[in-house]
TrEMBL record, chains A, B:
UniProt entry keywords in alphabetical sequence: ATP-binding, Cytoplasm, Ligase, Nucleotide-binding, Purine biosynthesis
InterPro entries, per database record: PurS, PurS-like_sf
Gene: purS
High-level lineage: Bacteria, Pseudomonadati, Pseudomonadota, Alphaproteobacteria, Rhodobacterales
Record-level GO cellular component terms: cytoplasm
Family, per entry: Belongs to the PurS family.
Subunit structure: Part of the FGAM synthase complex composed of 1 PurL, 1 PurQ and 2 PurS subunits.
GO biological process, any: 'de novo' IMP biosynthetic process
Catalytic activity annotation: N(2)-formyl-N(1)-(5-phospho-beta-D-ribosyl)glycinamide + L-glutamine + ATP + H2O = 2-formamido-N(1)-(5-O-phospho-beta-D-ribosyl)acetamidine + L-glutamate + ADP + phosphate + H(+)
Gene3D superfamilies: Phosphoribosylformylglycinamidine synthase subunit PurS
UniProt-recorded name of the protein: Phosphoribosylformylglycinamidine synthase subunit PurS
Purpose: Part of the phosphoribosylformylglycinamidine synthase complex involved in the purines biosynthetic pathway. Catalyzes the ATP-dependent conversion of formylglycinamide ribonucleotide (FGAR) and glutamine to yield formylglycinamidine ribonucleotide (FGAM) and glutamate. The FGAM synthase complex is composed of three subunits. PurQ produces an ammonia molecule by converting glutamine to glutamate. PurL transfers the ammonia molecule to FGAR to form FGAM in an ATP-dependent manner.
Organism encoding this protein: Roseovarius albus
Length: 79, 79
């Protein structure tokens, strides 16, 4: 079973990486870019378990390791 | 208009970050994790343009800046 986790900085937390990308895009002539946020995506290949258990387990992984929940939010997709 | 870009290392390209996460998850007692790939997700806020133009423009951003197409593949979602 596959799971995909998105980890993004929470709204209001400064994202220097995203800002750097925005500036670089502007310098390349892409004028219409009003904001950029950069985060991580983590794709997990899990041993055979049902979707519900997988979702709970991946949520626990996020809390313990994958995300810094003080400043980051995460989103889990299963399947 | 919002756009989301996923940038992942191509299959076959070694992903040391993903491997590090896999080991760390194992050390935390998550046994069922068979593989981990880590990539980037970039969320763009674009000035008002239609979806087709946005998709083409974001594709160009990926080719020029957001992805290293030698070793990375990208996927663009609009909306």
């Amino acid at each position: 079973m596959k799971a995909r986790v998105h980890v993004m900085l929470k709204d209001g937390v400064l994202d220097p990486q995203g800002e750097a990308v925005r500036h670089a895009l502007g310098a390349l002539g892409f004028d219409g870019v009003e904001g950029v946020r950069q985060g991580k995506v983590i794709e997990l290949e899990l041993a055979d378990i049902d979707a519900e258990t997988a979702k709970a387990q991946v949520g626990e992984m996020c809390e313990k390791l994958l995300a810094n929940t003080v400043i980051e939010s995460y989103q889990v997709e299963i399947g």
